[in-house]
Amino acid sequence: MSLEARRARFRALHEREKLLVMPNPWDAGSACLLESAGFEALATTSAGFAWSTGKLDQRVPREELVAHVSSLTRATELPLNVDSERCYPDDPGGVTETVALLAAAGAAGFSIEDYDPATGAIDDIDLAAARVAEAAEAAHALDEPLVLTGRAENHIRGVDDLDDTIARLSAYRDAGADVVYAPGLTRLADIEKVVALGIPVNVLALPAGPSLLELESIGVRRVSTGSLLAGAAYGALLAGARELQQDGTSHYGANGPSRETLEAAFGREGSAE
Fold first, then answer.
1. Strands, DSSP E only, in the chain?
2. How far apart are the first and last CA of the chain?
3. Nearest alpha-carbon partner for 219 in 20, 9, 57, 11
């Protein structure tokens, strides 16, 4: 499937009524495994990818993210949404150049968020909306547009203010976002208020959050896993390492994927164009 066809496919997945479940791999191997499991689209995780390079979240430079996107789009034919943090507004060319680089690397969509790690605070709503507008102009000018997700980071940054979150998402919608996303919401009634904005909504699947069936019943269009799958994988690695150190046993090895699963996932070369 060509990169242009993937973008068209990704947009079509947002236009149907069925919920799109979009897990977040952190490297080429996890992307291939998730593709083989039957998912229709994938998304990067800034935290999961950062961990895979030995860094904390928000510490990955733009060139490393772009190379990561290229590696995933070569490994799998599924549409790929990119967690591009703030879209690197302070790098050369700013947000517009970041969008161009992500498109060239094969992204089908991307997100832009309103948390600034340099200040440790949420950006002013007007500044954040202006960046969404810049990203939308760049994304929608392409022959086959990228799907743009506007993110309000309040609820994973210690700001439990639903009214402010809804005001922000409304501003990002009006600035040109195709999807809105407020990671950290777990109450179905709160999520339903976001859905009322009349634009496709992404929800982060969380242990304390609603089920997929509940989310689909209120009109949520897309669900992602963020860094949870990467965290679970690293948790399993550490648990196995502790067993080896403390008990001298390797029972953890019984939980690995079968040879058949690995052959199905890794037995072909990526065919990205």
1. 20-22, 42-43, 80-83, 109-113, 115-116, 121-122, 147-151, 179-181, 201-204, 222-224
2. 8
3. 20
**Model confidence over 150-208: pLDDT tens digits?**
999 999 999 999 999 999 999 999 999 999 999 999 999 999 999 999 999 999 999 99
Give dist(CA 22, CA 40) in Å, integer. 7
CA angle 16, 137, 63 (to 5 degrees): 95
Helix H or strand E segment including 12:
helix 3-15
Asked if residues 107 and 78 have their Cβ atoms less than 8 Å apart, the reply is no
Q: Which strands, in side-by-side order, build the sheet including 179-181?
A: 20-22, 222-224, 201-204, 179-181, 147-151, 109-113, 80-83, 42-43
Question: For the whole prediction, is pTM greater than 0.90?
Answer: yes
- Distance separating alpha carbons of residues 233 and 248, to the nearest angstrom: 21
CB of 95 within 8 A of CB of 134? yes
Q: Within a 13 Å sphere around the CA of 130, how many CA atoms are in the beta-carbon half?
A: 7
Query: Both tokens of residue 100?
Result: 């161009």
